[in-house]
Specification:
The protein is of the alpha+beta class. The chain has helices at residues 20-29, 42-45, 66-79, 129-137, 153-158, 166-169, 197-203, 239-252, 293-296, 298-301, 316-321, 347-358, 405-418, 437-442, 448-458; strands at 5-9, 15-19, 34-36, 59-61, 83-86, 102-105, 112-115, 120-123, 141-142, 176-182, 188-192, 212-219, 221-222, 226-235, 257-265, 280-288, 308-315, 332-340, 364-369, 390-398. Helix 12 (347-358) packs antiparallel against helix 13. The radius of gyration is 22 Å and the shape is globular.
């Protein structure tokens, strides 16, 4: 970089000029690398899961410690630079990258330390779900994480986080015991129920608005090492029977059972009979982490032999990674989802028809069962919409270079069809870059005002704004978004 003058994006969207000497001073102060385009490791550092995101930072810091993170935060604040944090790079809105600014890629902070006696896992912010699952399963323990093992733990947890164990143990955020965090002033803090409790409340659901977490401490539970799980699929001609069975199954399911209904075209994969590839199918993905699986899954077995798939005993880590091939990096992703208070009979045919409208070789439509522990108040984290019992929606997916306009239009049409069934709320981690501040406020409901107050306390200049942002300032209309009034 010697001899160059760099221009970076500032917090207000303008350009900030910076000498190469000043940038080199930052690099010297860090234990981890400072990267620019063309450097070794750059391509991986800016690679995101959703190929629709074209943002690229000017500089990437790969911190090795909380001290490195604090150094980079102070540098960004001093120069008014647009700043972002990349964990797994899996956020659909592309919040991992600060376009033209400074990105902290925490991939080097990937340690997991399990304390089986205390039933706690100390987790670095660069960890992926599989890192944590593999470490905790050595002791027959697990915490609540998501469905795709390539997802970053940090973003998933800070936005709430749900997965196969949510019905038993609540949101991933509900299972946090403590965090270490660098706030906008560059100070390393601890937040827990006793230390900085207001900040700890906000972090459990409020996303990346309040600082950069440099260590998570999760509560662990007895799970595995073997569960009953898998996927079974039938012809979409029988969608009504399968969806009605899903409705009956979820109405009586114990908390140890999580079931997901899906509609899509059968993938052209080796495990799918050739005559069924790219034909409409309806399926059920299940995970039973208890001891009564066979009795509880009897309604599903009564559907008869599936076209493909199998539900039976499997390692929990295999269950946690079985959807990875459906969610590879580098495809265009466009989602629309809603929380549902239940599954009324009229919802199922609405969902069926909407899902068939969305169907394309890579797209899919889902209903996740959530009801259980997350409906309970827990201890008051910021995750909103605790009355939700299901989440449902449509995922439009297509390869780079292909025309996705028709897929996007179909997702929007289908989403409009299910909105009358919504709680009025939505999951913040599933929001798109195009979604408004009103939709972000709807993810928190009554907690939104308190989140704004805590944001004003810990980040009054909104340094952490490359996210589903909760601004510390009043909106242009002089009030909070309408959905939070």
């Amino acid at each position: 970089m010697t001899g160059r003058m760099l221009e970076l994006t500032g917090l207000d969207g303008g350009r900030v000029g910076m000498t190469s000497a000043r940038v080199e001073q930052l690099g010297t102060a860090l234990a981890g690398p400072l990267l620019a385009a063309g450097d070794e490791g750059w391509d991986d550092a800016v690679l995101l899961w959703n190929a629709m995101i074209t943002a690229r930072p000017t500089l990437v810091v790969q911190p090795e410690s909380a001290r490195d993170v604090a150094t980079a935060v102070r540098f960004a604040a001093a120069h008014g630079l647009l700043l972002s944090v990349k964990g797994g790079g899996h956020n659909i809105a592309g919040t991992a990258l600060a376009d033209g600014g400074l990105t902290l890629d925490v991939c080097r902070m990937r340690d997991v330390v399990v304390d089986p006696a205390a039933r706690l896992a100390h987790v670095g912010p660069g960890c992926l779900l599989r890192d944590v699952d593999r470490a905790t399963q050595r002791y027959g323990l697990a915490t609540v994480l998501g469905f795709v093992s390539d997802t970053g733990v940090a973003g998933l947890t800070l936005g709430g986080g749900f997965g196969y164990l949510t019905r038993r143990f609540g949101w991933a955020a509900d299972n946090l015991e403590e965090v270490e965090i660098v706030t906008a002033d560059g100070v390393i803090r601890t937040a827990s129920r006793t230390d900085n409790p207001d900040l700890f409340w906000a972090l459990r659901g409020g996303g990346g608005n309040f600082g950069i977490v440099t260590r998570f401490v999760f509560r662990l539970h007895d799970v595995g090492p073997v569960v009953t799980g898998g996927l079974a699929a039938w012809s979409a001609e029988g969608a009504d029977d399968v969806l009605n069975t899903y409705r009956e199954l979820t109405a009586t399911a114990p908390r140890e059972l999580t079931a997901v209904a899906l509609l899509r075209l059968a993938p052209p994969a080796p495990f799918v009979p050739e005559q069924w590839r790219l034909k409409p199918i309806v399926g059920m993905l299940v995970c039973h982490s208890g001891t009564t699986a066979e009795a509880d899954l009897a309604p599903l077995r009564a559907l008869g032999e599936p076209i493909f798939g199998h539900i039976g005993p499997k390692p929990y880590v295999a269950q946690q990674s079985m959807l990875d091939d459906m969610e590879p990096k580098g495809l265009n992703q466009y989602w629309k989802t809603e929380f549902l208070p239940g599954l009324p009979a009229e919802y199922l045919p609405t969902f069926r028809d909407a899902a068939l409208d969305v169907a394309s070789p890579l797209s899919f439509s889902v209903v996740f069962h959530l009801a259980g522990a997350l409906n309970e108040e827990q201890d008051g984290g910021a995750v909103g919409n605790r009355e939700a019992r299901f989440i449902s929606g449509f995922s439009g997916v297509w390869p780079p270079g292909a025309d996705g306009d028709g897929i996007v239009a179909a997702v929007r049409r289908s989403w409009e069809c299910i909105r009358p069934f919504s709680t009025g709320g939505n999951y913040v981690n599933f929001q798109l870059a195009e979604d408004s501040a009103d939709r972000t406020a709807a993810a928190y409901r009554d907690g939104y005002r308190r989140l704004r107050q805590i944001k004003k306390q810990y980040d009054p200049d909104n340094l952490f704004r490359v996210n589903r942002n909760i601004s510390p300032r009043e909106n242009p209309n002089g009030d909070v978004p309408a959905t939070a009034r």
